[in-house]
Design a protein that fits this description.
With 405 residues, the protein is of the alpha/beta class. The chain has 15 helices and 16 strands.
Length: 405
């Protein structure tokens, strides 16, 4: 069966490599038929690549080839990936993707196009790289009512926080090392400000609860305000800081979804996830907590998920997989600040007496070198709006949510 790859970057080249490396294994998984990469779309030239004869700069070479049945979209971004994918689906070709930005923004339209044409649009690689989470969430956990999801969804920020926690590095120094190692881009905004994790939250929320969630609906906060002082205080409470994407069921018509730094206590499965690894914890009413852990990015881990989707499409040639979710709604994602109660870590310039006057029950924290006019504490359970009211008379330095996962 002939397939094409659009985008020959890190993931796209990995897809070609995995298909060729496993040429003896893949046919056994799809009834004896081999996969053949027939075309590779990229605007760049690769004169020394062993696949140079397969390259094209014209999308129509893929669209108009009736022998190409499945296309892997590993381009990234919304345009032209959306236009290309829509045309492919309408022409009767199935598409698999690692493009989280496209799925988060345009998922409903593409899934609808696949439904109407009887093709498949599969997205396993769009969340968690090589971690299998899409199929388990939609199939293995289908008997559960999902109560919530919490995920370490970005390897760059997890690496930076690990360096801060274990090596005592500042945010700036840890970011520099992440860039030197190739974990962070020259412009790291999408990672460190939480936008990458936000897109993945949208996809997970859409899958888990059946209605599309757009990035604009997810309150997003990054890690650039986290300091070593915060790390030290939270260590004294037997916890660590992680950038978490969190999704919480409220009722059949409403959920909460947000991305932010969070205090995770050391007993949690999420606390031990270090360096560039990712993890997604799903809480079901029947199964309890299950955690999916592994490399959240990288050439071959992500490519393995893309090729798994290609194999799934090959198995379902002429058949439509039951997969997808419905359209989003404006009021579907509520303001978590008034809807969700949780404890909070607070660092403030104040005295213990001032804090006790504002809060009835807090746990005071300490750190080496703590100034006499600085107090850090963890509050009782409350909404963030209630917290803001109580802190109105105090000079706040930082606030971090405390998770119950």
């Amino acid at each position: 069966m002939k397939v094409a790859v659009m985008g020959y970057g890190t993931v796209g080249s990995g897809v070609v490599e995995v298909i060729e490396t496993h040429s003896g294994i893949i046919p056994k998984k799809i009834g004896g038929e081999a996969l053949e990469v027939a075309r590779i779309l990229d605007l760049r030239d690769f004169p020394n690549d062993p696949h140079k004869d397969l390259f094209t700069k014209d999308f129509n070479d893929i669209l108009n080839d009736p022998e190409i049945k499945i296309v892997a979209e590993t381009m990234g971004g919304v345009n032209p990936a959306f236009d290309f994918t829509m045309k492919l689906l309408k022409s009767g070709k199935s598409v698999v993707t690692s493009n989280k930005e496209l799925v988060a923004q345009k998922g409903p339209e593409l899934l609808q196009a696949a439904e109407e044409s009887g093709t498949n649009y599969l997205i396993e690689a769009s969340v968690g790289g090589g971690i299998p989470i899409i199929r388990p969430l939609t199939q293995c956990l289908a008997a559960n009512h999902i109560e919530g999801i919490a995920g370490i969804l970005n390897g760059t920020t997890n690496f930076i926080l690990t360096m801060m926690i274990e090596k005592g590095m500042s945010f700036e120094d840890a970011l520099k090392i992440a860039q030197e190692k190739g974990y962070a881009e020259k412009d790291p905004t999408a990672d460190v400000e939480g936008h990458d994790a936000c897109r993945k939250v949208c996809i997970l929320a859409s899958l888990a609860f059946g209605k599309h969630v757009y990035p604009s609906q997810v309150a997003t906060e990054g890690i650039s305000n986290i300091t070593l002082e915060d790390v030290s205080y939270i260590n004294s409470a037997n916890g660590v800081i992680k950038l978490l994407g969190q999704i919480k069921y409220i009722n059949d018509d409403q959920i909460a979804a947000f991305v932010s730094p969070a205090v995770v206590y050391n007993g949690s499965q999420l606390a031990s996830v270090k360096d560039v690894f990712n993890a997604v914890l799903v809480r079901g009413d029947a199964v309890g907590d299950v955690c999916f852990y592994g490399p959240g990015a990288g050439k071959l881990p992500t490519a393995s998920a893309v090729v798994a989707d290609i194999i799934d499409c090959a198995k379902h040639t002429g058949r439509k997989k039951i997969f997808g979710w419905g359209a989003g709604e404006e009021d579907y994602v509520v303001d978590y600040k008034s809807a969700i109660k949780m404890p909070f870590y607070v660092r403030t310039k104040a005295t213990c007496n001032q804090v006790n006057a504002a809060f009835s029950d807090v746990k005071f924290l300490s750190r080496k070198g703590q100034p006499s006019d600085e107090v850090a504490f963890i509050t009782d359970i409350m909404t963030e709006n209630e917290l803001t009211e109580r802190l109105s008379s105090l000079e706040v330095i930082n606030i971090i949510k405390v998770t119950n996962y």
